[in-house]
Amino acid sequence: MNNIHPIFDKIATREQKEEQLRQRGVTLWFTGLSGSGKSTIAIALEQLLTKKGYLCQILDGDNIRSGINSDLGFSSADRTENIRRIAHISRLYNHTGIITLACFVSPTEELRRLARAIVGSVDFVLIYISTPLTECSRRDVKGLYAKALRGEIADFTGVSAPFEVPADADITIDTTLRSVECCAEEIFSQIIKRIEYGKL
Ligand code: ADP
Ligand 1, from 38, 40, 103, 182: best to mutate by most atoms within 8 Å of Cβ? Predict the structure, then answer.
């Protein structure tokens, strides 16, 4: 028995996975008002990254609230738990060498601090999509602003609940006068050093 050395703690480390994928796992955490463009830009960025050979995973309300977080509502405690779980999922992806694009309003410094603490500062890139409320409500992609303004949605960020502008955003993008592709390319140019293998 003395000569048997368990190898499970030695194989398939994060470093090996990153070497296999030839990329670094990071979390690109998109914050901003509903309709600011988080998901649209993340999708465009994912396409750009995929074309260049990077492996990514988008996390957004669609694939999170319908599955792993389907038991959560919108109380303050549930919103925190939502972000806590998403951050842990992001961390797991990062430790598999995968680039995570997490798109959540995450309106308060406290929520974003929680996400950063769980993911780890080294792997966490905060991207603030700063499209102003007037433009988001003009777009009203999901008809939510109209409903919120009629008082049909409680605690709707930007209308009846605050959005705290992040003081620590790594990248800030206002989509008002720019194409989706232009926004995605700008983020790409700013994160390339963080994801390239062997460049840290
Ligand atoms: P969020 O994920 O922040 O709630 P969405 O991505 O769902 O926002 O919606 C953003 C809307 O804004 C889409 O209808 C998109 O087509 C539009 N839009 C216009 N210009 C841009 C841009 N430069 N970047 C992102 N979205 C844009």
Answer: 40
